[in-house]
Design goal:
With 318 residues, this protein is of the alpha/beta class. 30% of the residues lie in helices and 15% in strands. The protein starts with a strand and ends in a 10-residue tail after the last helix. GO terms for molecular function: NAD binding; oxidoreductase activity, acting on the CH-OH group of donors, NAD or NADP as acceptor.
């Protein structure tokens, strides 16, 4: 693979200013570690013209002209936006940013958990209405000693486990194989999902969206949860059967949730999820941090270094 010019696609502006990453990578290209590996780094708009001299691109979204490049790097861990089979057919390398989101997403989940238990989301809503309203005596509670089930124990899951464990929760996990995981009391397989969620106060989804995980949590899984349990989704909207979730919330099958991802984004204004009690809605930003571009830049730098030495780039998916 030859990497003479790397483009930073304008789609990353949804997460950070493209010029920040351009400058970060341009500075790195001048160091000894990447000397000769990347002669130029430039902002691109995804058009064939802007990509004409590029060998690679760093991007949030897929664009058709990317199939003519050598390498595409996704700034997200998930690659469900990208047509992987077409990448294989075209011989385009696809990598992702697995490993950079654990801290930010873990802290976001911890915030959701604490907000729901300590009723912080209610106080914030009351403030908007200049309303001084304390919770009932038995409404707020502490999370220490409660149980969480983290579905997906990869990079995101690891960051979540560490934070919840630090808050004093007992943590179970779900993944394809039942290998032990530090800080996790019990590890269940995906086939045991309904058993795993049955006694958890918080069920946290942290799996990528694949054919195997699409609709992973449906009516039966929600019914298996305790009626005082909360669903926290920082994975992808498609992992959950959203109509079934709305029904479960309306019927009191579960107590509430914190949702960062949805089947349709932005979440439509007429979605019932906006107005359901004890549901926190956030705009797919669990991984946001002012250091996001630095983390992505570090992965890209290392990949450039490896490619220059004839090795594979980091986090190769295709």
């Amino acid at each position: 693979m030859r990497l003479d010019r790397i483009g930073v696609d304008e789609s990353v502006a949804a997460v950070f200013p493209p010029e920040r990453l351009v400058d970060r990578l341009a500075d790195a290209a001048d160091t000894d570690a990447t000397e000769g590996a990347a002669a130029d780094v430039t902002a691109v708009d995804g058009s064939p013209e802007s990509l004409a001299d590029c060998d690679a691109v760093v991007t949030l979204e897929h664009r058709e002209p990317f199939l003519d490049l050598e390498w595409v790097h996704s700034i997200q861990a998930g690659v469900d936006r990208f047509p992987r089979e077409r990448f294989r057919e075209a011989g385009v390398v696809l990598t992702n940013s697995t490993g950079v989101h654990g801290d930010a997403v873990g802290e976001t989940v911890a915030g959701f958990v604490l907000a729901l238990a300590r009723r912080v989301h209610e106080y914030a809503a009351n403030q908007a209405d200049n309303e001084w309203d304390r919770p009932d005596w038995d409404e707020a509670w502490t999370v220490a000693g409660e149980r969480a089930c983290v579905v997906g124990l990869g990079g995101l899951g690891r960051g979540i486990v560490d934070r919840l464990d630090g808050l004093g929760l007992d943590v179970d996990g779900v993944r394809r194989d039942p290998l032990p995981e530090p800080g996790v009391d019990r590890v269940f397989t995906v086939d045991e999902l309904r058993t795993a969620v049955a006694d958890a106060r918080f069920v946290v989804l942290a799996v990528p969206l694949t054919d195997a995980t699409r609709g992973l949590v449906g009516a039966e899984e929600l019914a298996a949860m305790d009626d005082e349990a909360y669903l926290v989704n920082v994975a992808r909207g498609g992992v959950v059967d959203q109509p079934a979730l709305v029904d479960a919330l309306r019927e009191g099958e579960i107590a509430g949730g914190a949702l960062d991802v949805f089947e349709t984004e932005p979440l439509p204004a007429d979605s019932p999820l906006w107005d359901l009690d004890d549901v926190i809605v956030s705009p797919h930003c669990a991984a946001y941090t002012r250091d996001y571009y630095r983390h992505v830049g570090a992965i890209v730098e290392e990949s450039v270094r490896r490619v220059a030495e004839g090795d594979e780039p980091v986090n190769r998916v295709v």
